[in-house]
């Protein structure tokens, strides 16, 4: 999320036409088209955050700026050239790194919270714990995971939680 993304299309010489057909999970479909005989590009219902990366007659790649969850979906490119028709399809999934916080609950137990990640983060404790993480789903597809450290012994001072996520791992330590 927040990065730029480039989806490539088969680069061919003597391109006659290029079409990107985009079907996002949220909102209606959009198309970007290019016709070589008229040297003309056209866009229908596409947001300003996506456009050709370069000139479509030279490189028919699509660039998405500031990728968001609403960009998730299917992206299909068709290149028509003198050698034939060429297709490439993508299914775009957006990763959202969770926000990590840690605090002590009313009973003095460390709590680790990974807020609004996509997909759901995994929370692990450096020391063994018999905690069971709780998940809360949000309307935008992100998930908050909450785990309370339950120590086997009571003489633990510093406790570290590790949040494992495809967008990157994080850790935090607290003394309760």
TrEMBL record:
GO molecular function: signaling receptor activity
GO cellular component: external side of plasma membrane
Broad class of the protein's primary localization: membrane
Keyword list, A-Z: Disulfide bond, Glycoprotein, Membrane, Receptor, Transmembrane, Transmembrane helix
Membrane topology annotation: Single-pass membrane protein
Alphabetical list of Pfam families matching this protein: C2-set_2, V-set
Localization in the cell: Membrane
Signal sequence coordinates: none
GO biological process: regulation of neuroinflammatory response
The UniProt record lists the keyword Membrane: yes
Ig-like domain boundaries: 1-93, 112-175
The organism's place on the tree of life at top rank: Eukaryota
InterPro entries registered for this protein in UniProt: CD200R, CD80_C2-set, Ig-like_dom, Ig-like_dom_sf, Ig-like_fold, Ig_V-set
Entry's family note: Belongs to the CD200R family.
The protein's name in its UniProt record: MOR1A protein
Protein source organism: Circaetus pectoralis (black-chested snake-eagle)
Organism ancestry: Eukaryota, Metazoa, Chordata, Craniata, Vertebrata
Gene: Cd200r1a_0
């Amino acid at each position: 999320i927040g990065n730029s993304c480039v989806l490539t299309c088969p680069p061919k010489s003597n391109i006659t036409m290029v079409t990107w057909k985009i079907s996002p999970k949220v909102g209606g479909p959009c198309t970007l088209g290019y016709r070589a005989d008229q040297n003309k590009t056209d866009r229908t219902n596409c947001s300003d955050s996506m456009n050709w990366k370069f000139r479509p007659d030279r490189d028919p790649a699509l660039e998405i700026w500031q990728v968001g969850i609403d960009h998730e979906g299917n992206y299909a490119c068709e290149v028509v050239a003198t050698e034939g028709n060429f297709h490439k399809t993508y299914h775009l999934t957006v990763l959202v790194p969770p926000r990590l916080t840690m605090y002590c609950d009313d009973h003095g137990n460390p709590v680790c919270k990974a807020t609004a990640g996509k997909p759901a983060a995994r929370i692990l404790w450096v020391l063994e714990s018999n905690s069971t993480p709780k998940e809360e789903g949000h309307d935008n597809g992100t998930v908050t995971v909450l785990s309370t450290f339950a120590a086997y012994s009571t003489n633990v001072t510093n406790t570290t939680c590790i949040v494992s996520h495809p967008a990157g791992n994080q850790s935090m330590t607290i003394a309760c």
